[in-house]
Amino acid sequence: MSSTRTAKILWVLWALFVCRVLGQLIVVLYAPDFLPPMKEWYSGLMPYQYLLPTQILIIGFFAKIASDISRGIGRLSKPHQKLGLFLRNFGYFYFGAMIFRYVLRMSMYPEERWFGGTIPIIFHFVLATFLIVWGKYNLRQSPTSA
Fold it and tell me: Which of these, 43, 60, 72, 128, could form a disulfide with 94 (CB 3.0-4.6 Å)?
């Protein structure tokens, strides 16, 4: 996969995550009828006062990654074999854990099947996919992978 294609995919995944964070923030501030209620956006594992700053850090870090790869300059655009292996493998594990979480949730709450409580899970898939794509970029672009 080329650097250009990787960057485009990373930017799309970044934009999806930004939309998720903004959507949840709009619900917190205004509770509009056209968006799902807060309980659909939020698992409650981390208090929102800590979740939002964490999400903003992720947005900033992922933007830096996508920007460096887009421009072909910057520390995060330089391929690293070990980092690539870690990111790809962790991303696959993370993705698999979210499949397990989805299956578990649907078995525990059959009345919510298929989409109840899935907003956090879906966006964890987005984050996992970002890690997988970035990992594969590092592996494919690494001098030792040639």
Answer: 128
pLDDT per residue as tens digits for the range 59-105: 999 999 999 999 999 999 999 999 999 999 999 999 999 999 999 98
Please report where in the chains the tokens 């907003």 appear, as a residue. Answer: 119
Residue length, the chain? 146
- Per the structure, the complete domain to which residue 53 belongs is given by 3-145
What letter represents residue 52's amino acid? Answer: L
For the chain, how many structural domains are there in total? Answer: 1
What is the DSSP secondary-structure string of 61-74?
A: HHHHHHHHHHHT-S
Q: Which of 144, 135, 98, 139 is nearest to 9 (CA)?
A: 135
Q: How far apart are CA 87 and CA 63, in angstroms?
A: 17
Query: Which position has the token pair 């956006």?
Result: 41
What is the C-alpha to C-alpha distance for residues 13 and 58, in angstroms, rounded to an integer?
Answer: 12
